[in-house]
Each structure stands twice: as structure tokens, then as C-alpha cells.
Q: What sequence folds into this?
């Protein structure tokens, strides 16, 4: 057996002195060459890295005392870097320990614990070599002097030190220095100078930053190299060796505060926002996290590390350090620590239940899984899950997420997820939402398709919910807000559950919200022809939605990265998102849907779109027209569509053609199916939901076919009490005028609207008047039809006022029809003035009769009552 092997064996048996004697004996005989000395140094280094710390220090202490300098350096050279790293971190841990003890001393003084304060001060002073104690005592005096609100209690502690210096390891002269420093600290505090107490975590922060520098930067993304792992491993080993060298392994206190920074444990929302609970782990990049996890997992399974650390955790289980210690055990991921974690989980006095749950999830053994599922079952077994039970259940789900993510076998992951799903409450959405966000990260290949479809259904459902607290932090500064994590999740599930995503989205499209925008973004990134029907339905519902009548409590917002503020969601944004999704789908149905969308914007059914969206829709419309063999007219009337791509935004230009009527197209023939739809439109229904479904579907189909016999029935619904039906009727009437439309159909359409304005109830008149302004009352043939009606002199007062308002200030019909009246005072008449006819006098003034005033007042008041008495009440004529 070689000498290096003998020495290494002795060190492995913790016989440092014996190893030094072996080396000294051989060196005295002159049989050791310099290469052999270097080999011995490398053997000793291996044992040092293997945490045989005390025997190695004994070995070198003996050699340094007895050996010649040159020989000693030859043996010491291989281990020098490890020794220096240990000394450096030993010094840093001492600084952190002093900082921790000072904080403890201050806490004792503030808590009026005089006995505890004296004990803390004695520990601080006697914990350093005797020659350094006077300096430590002066430091304590300065700290105590900086306590303004606890000055009397701090002064009492200084007096106690003066009365019995020996108790604190001091002499009378050193105590005098303490009193002087106390006075200086008090003066500095009164002058509002920065006291030393403000640097409560300075050393810990600096040490944490220094340790993080041993890892690659945040933007480094590659597989960890051996060199990168070695650099971080050396630093952590140095920290652990310093702890093993300390009396009673006391420096594990400081090492715990450092290592816990690498825990991915969730912190409170308030703490995260304030920045007081943010862990270093959150700032690390992917490569750095992989390196840290690999190093801690390797060292945490070393018996010479984990056993002393478990002993330390058991001794400190009932204080704050013990809680952090349980969390660090989870970072080590040693299966042998599960029994200790099970005890911590059951010990109510330990106050480390949350940390034990996270640690069990990180370790991921069968025993840990059983403990977590049992704990989850207990917390969700009640009928109402609130308070501590609810919070702990969320913690368990997060811990189970760590466990699931650590399993490489997809089939096993699927079985565990299925087991957990059965436990979750079925009627509380927050539980499954937290589950899907924790369980379905990374690749989903090999997981049971039924489970993936369940996750997709939960994610889509949550898009239509209100702002979710469990998603708020993850969605901060994201364009889609709290919906962003859900959309990211759906992107991972899309290859396996697109059918479920579409089906669930179609179910919720009846509720217009920011989910429309989110689904548009999702569909654009994951295009599929099966999405077209859902997108078309969203577009239709967007057209029906009135975003002017929203409460401040239900307004939808999106994050604007340019201004870093939340902006109100608009229909324009939704339409642009859905149009972009259709453009990504390569199918005839998608292109036809975009062409229809273009026509709807042109006819005013949808709000104007931006320039980019306009170009997309215009291109699709021209392609559809050419495919149908129809002539194409660009906005402004130019044929061929050559200027289409340079058109102004859709909805801001003139309608597609100067006259939407086409004399070459014959009116549609009424079929039996059309008659059935007209019957559906005229029928009465007991159930409001069925009434809405039937009538909206019938109006949409009849308008697309432009069946004129249905006009009267559709017009009667424009002021329906159901706002959805009323909006659908208005959209259907606009569809009638959308090009191409037969000339005969258009004439019938205009006549039906003008007749209804004259004869229908006032609410219907008002709605049809709004429709006229969208149809272009200044263009032929509608312009001539309105002028004919106004000049005929047979319209009612309200109809005349509505047509004049729609046609503009130069509309005919300005005569008084032979009436003698008085000057109309619009300010006094209020809302009734809108129903007044006008007559041109010599001076251009407006004259109305008393009867006109009374009639206009009654009509205005009826509209005011039907409208829920919103706005100012009409004033009666004098």
C-alpha cells in the first residue's frame, strides 16, 4: 500500500494525527520525493472535500508546526484553494452570526426581556477571542445607544454590564468604553444620523450576492458545464465545512439563512410586492437553477452533512431558524429525511408545517406522496373550505406540483395527477386552476389524454372568470394580465386537446369579456381549421356587445407595455385579435369568415379596424369575390382591387360601393326553411333563453339570405326588452343593406324602414332613426326616399323630427303645414324639442303650435319612462 493511500485511509477514519505521524516518519527517512508529496496533498484534498474536516485540519496543523517550509508547501499546494475558500466563508459566516445575534439582542430589548438581553449580550462578547472582546463590547454599546424609543431599557442593560463585567467576559476598563459608546450612539440617533442598527441584514445580503456570483448569469441558457458546477460546489462545500468545524455546528444557523435563498417556495403576495420576501431563487436563470439543484442534492445526500444538519434542525425546530432548516432539508432532497419531515408535519408546536409540506413535495418519495395526499384530503373534506384549511390546501397543491414535475415517467405522472383530481372540490374553481398551473408544465407527451382534456377545460373556463388571486402575481406586467399563465398553459395542451378547447370556448362565448382577446391571441399562435366556428361566433357576439353601458366594476382592462399601465379593453382590440387568428388559419372557411367580417365592418355592424387588420380583411374579401366570379370594388369605387392593400382602415372609408344595390342580382326566393324561420321569429316562447336563441338565429339567417317578407318581423324587435335580441335585430337590418343586394330588395328594405318610422311605437322609431344614420341618408336612393316622405306632409310629428335629424339640416319638410305657432324654445322644451317639426319663417326662426308642443311632450315622456327614467325628465309645455 502506497504512503498516499495509507494517509488517505487514516484521514477517512478521522485519524488526522496518525496520518501526520505516518508522513513524518517517511519524510525523516528521506524516502519521499516531491511528486509523492504532491500526490499525498491530492489524497488529503479528496478527504477534505469529502467533509473529513477535523482530521485534515489536525494533519496540516501538525505538519505546519514540525515540517520544513518547502516540504509543507508541497503537501499544502493541492489543498490551498479549498482551505482559503473555507476561511473566507468562515469569516463571512462569523459576520452574519454577529449580525444575527445583534438583531436578537435588539429584539430582546424591544420585547422588555431583560434576562434574555443580558444573555444575548454575553453570547455576543464571549463568542469571540478574548483580545477582540473589548471591540465587540464597544460595538454593542453603540448599537444600544441608537435605540431611541427603548433608551431606558438599553441603558439598564449597559448598567448591568457595569455592575458585573465578569458575567459578560469583560474587565472594568472595557465596560467604561461601552458606556462611552452608548453615549455616542445616543447622540448620533438624536442628530438623525444613520445608526448601525439600520444595517440589520447587510452582511447576510452581501454574502448571498457573493454566493450567487458563483453561478452563471440570469440570461445564460445552456446545459451546465463541469467547470460551472465545480465553482459553485467549491463555495457550498466551504460553507458546510465551516459549519462542521464550528462548536456544536452552530454556524448552521448562518448557512441555513444562505441556503434557504435557493428555495422556490412561494411567498406571500404582499411580501413579494414589498420586496421583503423575495428569494434569490426567483432571480436566477435556468442554468443557474440547474447547477444549484444538482449541487445541493448531491451534498444533501452525503451522510457527513445531512446527519449533523438534521440534528441541528431538531434542536432548533421550535424557532425561526428551524422553519428555514426544514425548508433547506427539502432543497437537499434526501429520501432519508422523510421521517424527520413527517414528525415536523405532525408537530403542531413546531410551526413548520408549511415548510415540511414543501420539503416532502421536493423529495417526492411514495411516502411523501401519501403524506401530501392525506393532508390534502383532510383540508378539503369540509363543506366550506376557508381560512387556514384553504391556505394549507393551496400549499399542498403547490408541493404536489413540485413532486409531479420531478417525475420523468409520464404514465406515472398521469396516475398521480388523476389521483389528486379525485380529491379536489368540484364546485370551487380555484382548486383545479392551481392544480393545472402546477401539474402541467413542460412537455405533456405520454400523459393520459383524458387528463389533458380536463386541464384544457379548466384553463378555458378560468379565462372567463374574474381576476383570480392565484394568477395575479404570475400575470403582472403581462399584456393579458391574469389570463396570460392560462394562455401559456393552453399552448402546451393545444396539440392534445384542441377539440376540448374549442368546445369549452364555444360554451362561454355568450359572455363577452377579455377572454375574447386572450382566445384570439391563443388561436393566432396555435392555428387550426377547427377554430373557425368559435372565432365567427366571437365576432358575432362582439358586434352585438354594447361597450358604452358598462359599470366601472366590470370594465375589462389589458396591460399596455408602452405606458406600463392598465388600459380599458376596446372592441377594436378584440376584432384585431380575432382577425389575426383567422389570417393564420389556412382554410377556405377562414378566408370566407374574414370576407364576411370585412362586409360587416363596411356596413357598420362592427367598429372600424386598424390599418394592418384592414389590409388583412380587404385581401380576404377580394379573394372571396374573385373566387365567386363577382366584380370587386375597392373603397372609393375603384374596380379591380389593385388599391385594396393601401386602403384606409376598414370602417373609416365610404361603403364598398357608391350604391350597395346591384341590378344584375335577382331577389332571393322564399323557401320553406325561410318560412319556418319567420314563424320562429313571430312565435312566443315560455323560456327566455330559448326565445333568445331562436329569434337571434332566425334573424341572422334571414338577413344573410335577404328575405324581404321577414323585414316587418325583424323591425318589430329592434326595441325588444331583451338587449341581445334588440341588438341582433339591428345587426340583421344592417346585413340587409350589406353589398351585394338586389335593387328590388333594397327598395323594399328602405320603404319598410321608413314606413315603420312613421307608424311604429316611438322606441322603434328612435332605433330605426339611428339605423338610418348608418345606412348613409345622404346617398341615393335613400336620400330621395327621405325627401319624398318629408315633402309629402303626411308624417307624424315624431317621424318628421327623426327623418329631419337623420337627413341633416338641409332636409325638406321645413314648412309649418299651414299651422300658426310660436317660437320654439328648445332649452325650455328639453327632450321634447327633438320631436318638434320645424317651419321656415321670414327670419329663419322655428315656429310650432301649442298642439305640437303637447304631442311632443307626451311622446318624449313615454320614451323617458320606457327607458327606465334615465336622463332628465321632459318638461311640460307652458
A:
Amino acid at each position: 500500500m502506497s504512503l498516499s493511500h495509507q494517509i488517505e485511509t487514516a484521514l477517512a477514519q478521522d485519524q488526522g494525527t496518525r496520518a501526520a505521524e505516518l508522513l513524518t516518519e517517511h519524510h525523516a527517512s528521506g524516502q519521499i520525493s516531491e511528486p509523492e508529496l504532491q500526490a499525498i496533498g491530492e489524497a488529503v484534498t479528496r478527504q477534505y472535500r469529502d467533509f473529513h474536516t477535523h482530521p485534515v485540519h489536525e494533519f496540516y496543523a501538525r505538519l505546519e508546526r514540525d515540517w520544513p517550509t518547502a516540504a509543507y508547501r508541497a503537501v499544502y499546494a493541492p489543498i490551498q484553494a479549498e482551505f482559503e475558500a473555507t476561511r473566507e466563508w468562515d469569516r463571512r459566516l462569523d459576520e452574519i452570526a454577529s449580525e444575527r445575534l445583534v438583531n436578537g439582542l435588539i429584539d430582546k430589548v424591544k420585547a422588555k426581556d431583560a434576562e434574555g438581553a443580558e444573555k444575548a449580550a454575553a453570547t455576543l462578547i464571549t463568542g469571540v477571542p478574548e483580545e477582540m472582546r473589548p471591540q465587540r463590547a464597544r460595538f454593542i454599546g453603540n448599537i444600544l445607544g441608537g435605540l431611541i424609543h427603548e433608551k431606558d431599557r438599553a441603558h439598564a442593560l449597559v448598567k448591568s454590564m457595569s455592575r458585573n463585567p465578569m458575567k459578560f467576559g469583560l474587565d472594568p476598563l472595557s465596560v467604561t468604553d461601552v458606556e462611552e459608546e452608548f453615549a455616542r450612539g445616543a447622540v448620533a440617533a438624536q442628530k438623525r444620523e444613520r445608526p448601525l442598527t439600520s444595517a440589520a441584514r447587510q452582511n447576510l445580503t452581501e454574502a448571498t450576492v457573493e454566493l450567487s456570483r458563483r453561478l452563471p448569469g440570469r440570461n445564460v441558457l445552456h446545459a451546465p458545464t463541469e467547470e460551472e458546477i465545480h465553482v459553485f460546489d467549491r463555495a457550498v462545500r466551504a460553507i458546510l465545512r465551516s459549519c462542521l468545524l464550528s462548536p456544536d455546528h452552530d454556524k448552521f444557523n448562518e448557512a441555513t439563512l444562505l441556503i434557504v435563498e435557493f428555495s422556490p417556495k412561494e411567498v406571500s403576495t404582499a411580501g413579494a410586492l414589498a420586496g421583503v420576501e423575495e428569494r434569490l431563487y426567483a432571480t436566477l436563470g435556468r442554468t443557474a437553477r440547474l447547477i444549484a439543484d444538482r449541487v445541493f442534492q448531491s451534498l444533501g445526500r452525503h451522510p457527513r452533512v445531512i446527519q449533523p444538519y438534521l440534528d441541528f434542525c431538531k434542536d432548533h425546530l421550535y424557532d425561526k431558524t428551524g422553519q428555514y432548516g426544514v425548508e433547506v432539508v427539502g432543497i437537499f432532497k434526501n429520501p432519508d429525511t422523510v421521517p424527520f419531515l413527517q414528525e415536523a408535519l405532525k408537530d403542531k408546536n413546531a410551526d413548520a408545517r408549511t415548510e415540511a409540506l414543501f420539503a416532502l413535495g421536493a423529495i417526492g418519495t411514495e411516502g411523501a406522496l401519501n403524506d401530501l395526499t392525506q393532508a390534502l384530503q383532510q383540508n378539503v373534506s369540509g363543506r366550506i373550505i376557508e381560512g387556514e384549511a384553504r391556505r394549507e390546501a393551496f400549499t399542498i397543491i403547490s408541493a404536489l406540483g413540485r413532486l409531479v414535475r420531478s417525475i420523468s415517467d409520464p404514465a406515472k405522472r398521469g396516475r398521480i395527477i388523476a389521483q389528486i383530481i379525485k380529491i379536489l372540490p368540484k364546485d370551487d374553481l380555484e382548486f383545479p386552476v392551481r392544480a393545472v398551473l402546477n401539474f402541467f408544465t413542460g412537455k405533456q407527451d405520454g400523459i393520459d389524454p383524458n387528463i389533458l382534456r380536463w386541464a384544457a377545460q379548466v384553463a378555458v373556463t378560468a379565462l372567463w372568470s374574474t381576476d383570480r388571486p392565484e394568477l395575479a402575481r404570475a400575470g403582472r406586467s403581462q399584456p393579458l394580465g391574469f389570463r396570460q399563465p392560462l394562455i401559456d398553459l393552453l399552448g402546451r395542451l393545444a396539440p392534445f386537446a384542441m377539440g376540448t378547447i374549442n368546445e369549452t370556448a364555444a360554451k362561454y362565448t355568450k359572455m363577452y369579456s377579455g377572454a375574447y382577446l386572450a382566445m384570439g391571441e391563443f388561436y393566432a399562435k396555435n392555428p387550426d381549421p377547427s377554430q373557425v366556428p368559435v372565432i365567427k361566433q366571437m365576432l358575432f357576439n362582439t358586434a352585438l356587445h354594447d361597450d358604452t353601458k358598462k359599470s366601472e366594476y366590470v370594465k375589462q382592462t389589458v396591460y399596455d407595455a408602452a405606458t406600463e399601465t392598465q388600459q380599458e379593453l376596446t372592441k377594436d382590440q378584440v376584432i384585431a385579435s380575432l382577425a389575426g387568428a383567422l389570417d393564420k388559419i389556412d382554410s377556405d372557411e377562414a378566408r370566407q369568415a374574414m370576407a364576411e367580417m370585412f362586409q360587416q365592418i363596411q356596413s357598420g355592424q362592427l367598429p372600424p379596424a386598424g390599418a394592418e387588420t384592414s389590409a388583412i380583411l380587404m385581401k380576404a374579401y377580394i379573394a372571396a369575390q374573385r373566387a365567386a366570379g363577382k366584380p370587386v370594388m375597392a373603397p372609393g369605387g375603384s374596380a379591380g382591387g389593385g388599391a385594396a392593400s393601401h386602403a384606409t382602415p376598414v370602417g373609416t372609408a365610404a361603403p364598398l360601393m357608391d350604391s350597395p344595390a346591384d341590378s344584375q342580382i335577382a331577389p332571393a326566393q322564399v323557401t320553406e326553411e325561410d318560412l319556418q324561420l319567420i314563424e320562429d321569429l313571430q312565435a312566443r316562447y315560455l323560456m327566455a333563453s330559448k326565445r333568445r336563441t331562436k329569434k337571434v338565429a332566425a334573424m341572422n339567417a334571414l338577413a344573410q339570405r335577404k328575405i324581404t317578407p321577414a323585414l316587418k318581423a325583424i323591425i318589430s324587435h329592434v326595441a325588444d326588452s331583451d338587449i341581445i335580441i334588440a341588438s341582433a335585430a339591428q345587426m340583421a337590418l344592417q346585413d340587409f343593406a350589406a353589398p351585394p343586394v338586389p335593387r328590388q330588395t333594397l327598395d323594399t328594405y328602405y320603404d319598410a324602414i321608413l314606413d315603420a318610422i312613421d307608424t311604429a311605437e316611438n322606441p322603434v322609431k328612435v332605433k330605426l332613426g339611428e339605423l338610418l344614420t348608418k345606412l348613409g341618408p345622404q346617398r341615393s336612393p335613400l336620400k330621395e326616399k327621405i325627401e319624398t316622405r318629408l315633402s309629402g306632409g303626411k308624417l307624424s310629428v315624431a317621424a318628421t323630427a327623426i327623418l329631419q335629424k337623420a337627413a341633416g339640416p338641409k332636409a325638406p319638410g321645413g314648412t309649418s303645414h299651414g299651422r300658426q305657432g310660436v317660437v320654439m324654445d328648445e332649452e325650455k322644451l328639453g327632450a321634447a324639442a327633438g320631436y318638434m317639426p320645424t317651419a321656415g319663417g321670414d327670419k329663419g326662426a322655428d315656429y310650432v303650435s301649442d298642439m305640437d308642443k303637447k304631442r311632443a311632450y307626451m311622446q318624449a315622456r313615454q320614451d323617458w319612462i320606457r327607458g327606465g327614467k334615465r336622463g332628465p325628465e321632459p318638461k311640460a309645455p307652458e
About this structure: DSSP finds 41 helices and six strands in the chain. Residues 80-110 form the longest helix (31 residues).
